Amino acid sequence: MNDEITVLDFSQIKIGMEKKFRIVVTEYMLESFANLSGDYNPLHMNENYATNTSFRKRICHGMLLSSFLSRLVGMYLPGQNALYISQSLKFHSPCFVNDKITIIGKVVSKSESTHIITLKTIIVNESGNCLVDGEAKVLLRE
Length: 142
Known about the structure:
Elements: E1 18-24, H1 27-37, H2 42-45, H3 47-51, H4 62-76, E2 82-91, E3 100-111, E4 116-125, E5 130-140
Antiparallel strand pairs: 1-3, 2-5, 3-4, 4-5
C-alpha cells in the first residue's frame, strides 16, 4: 500500500472489509521512536544488555508497532474521514529490528446511529506470528 489517502464515506464501509500494509522495522525507526517517546529502556536500545535477557537481542518498542495502527486508520481504513476514538492492545510476541511486519485492520461492526466502526487490528511478522492485536473504535466524519 502506498501513502495515498483513502476517502470512504460511512455507506461504503462494509463488515468484513480489510486493509493491510507491510513494512520493515528499521534501526532508524527504533532510534526515532526512543527520541520521540523518551523510552530508552536498555531492552530496546542496548545490545549488550538485551543479549543477557530471554529475548537474546533488542526488541522493538511495543508502542512503536502500535503507532502503525494510526497510519492504518488515518490513511487506509477508513482514511481521510476517520476520527480515532479508542484502541485496545495486547502484546503477544516480540518484534526485532529488520523484521518484516504486516499491519491489518478488518471491519467487524458499524453503528448506523453513531457512525462508529469497530476494527479488529492485528500486527503479524513474516512467519504469521501475532505480535499485537486489539480493537479500534473509529468515528466516520461526514
